[in-house]
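User: Quick sanity check before I run a bigger batch. Here is a single chain. Can you write out its predicted 3D structure?
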Amino acid sequence: MEIVFAVTQESDGGFVAECLSQDIFTQGDTWEELRANVREAVAAYFFDQPKPAVVRLHLVRDEVLAPA
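Assistant: Done. Predicted structure follows.
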């Protein structure tokens, strides 16, 4: 089983991750902190169930460009 998190970068530089298939949310000030927090949140959510084999972090970037 694989679960996917949509990750967005906040204006203050931190990151927010939301799982697309389960009710799991977490955040971190740095990418490394976010990764650790995602691992911890997934372990806590699946504490009494089989854990996913893969956790994918998908960085979503929303950028607005002015037309040329």
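The radius of gyration is 14 Å.

User: Great, the batch can go ahead then.
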